Amino acid sequence: MSVPIVRTVAELRTVVAGWRRSGASIAVVPTMGALHKGHLSLARTALQKADRVIVTLFVNPKQFNSAADLAAYPRTESEDAAKLAPVGAHLLYVPDAADMYPAGFATTVSVSGFSEGLCGAFRPGHFDGVATVVAKLFLQTGADFAFFGEKDFQQLQLVRRMVQDLDIPITVVPCPAVREADGLALSSRNVRLSPAERSVAPKLASVLLETAEQLARGSPVLPMLAKARAAILSAGYREVEYLELRGEADLQPIASIDRPARLLAAAWLGETRLIDNVKVSLTFPVAAKVHG
Ligand code: AMP
Known about the structure:
Elements: E1 5-6, H1 9-21, E2 26-31, H2 37-49, E3 52-57, H3 67-72, H4 77-87, E4 91-93, H5 97-100, H6 119-122, H7 126-141, E5 145-149, H8 153-165, E6 171-175, H9 195-200, H10 203-216, H11 221-235, E7 239-247, E8 261-269, E9 272-280
Parallel strand pairs: 1-4, 2-3, 2-5, 3-4, 5-6
Antiparallel strand pairs: 7-8, 8-9
Helix pairs in contact: 7-8, 10-11
């Protein structure tokens, strides 16, 4: 059995209306395709929560900063459909860019604060593109639940803020990052890594984890962040775009672990940009203090 595919909003709405008539609850799992076990885990979690699960596959041109990156993004629709069938997803929605953004399209959804800094500082316009397409997907599907990975933590928090601000009647459900056995977070971009780069890649996650543990134990923030940057570079990464400690809920910069926090990073391994983040739990009553 393969997953039925629809490509237009009209077809999508016909299927959804039928489900609604039968009283079914509906979940949406937005993706850009090239599905891996991380995406499939979102779909599996969605199936536990909702009666019907729509996976969307759209390589959204508005969230790419570079035409080369957009052109190089892996596109594997038939493999994606084959992977989703055994999981039990009910529908794959694969809209056309020309239908999503017809001539004259003029609306942008922008979530200030959440779209700046971290990835936003290095990918201008990226999060406006994300917010705009996610808002459209929520309105097109009319889903009750949306599943997002914590792997893209800034995106997750931005989408939550947007849903709250625009009173969109959907519950955003965060899902933990799925990792390879060596700790590397699964990403559609990992296929671009050479064997040598692949062996270096897990260092990003291991450095973040070690640093988070030490911060939770009270080590000083700024020296720990500097040490972590150096460790990522000496492992073989070409550049660390950012490595920052932020408050978990609002993603504001923080200088001490006085509330739940996240350590987030983006780094270049050869020509591949990888991102990752880990939770920093407050395990000691005394907050870590910034030195100097
Ligand atoms: P993408 O196709 O990369 O835009 O990702 C689609 C959804 O899958 C987003 O909610 C991502 O956060 C999520 N996702 C991507 N990689 C992972 C992963 N390794 N573990 C869990 N979720 C992921």
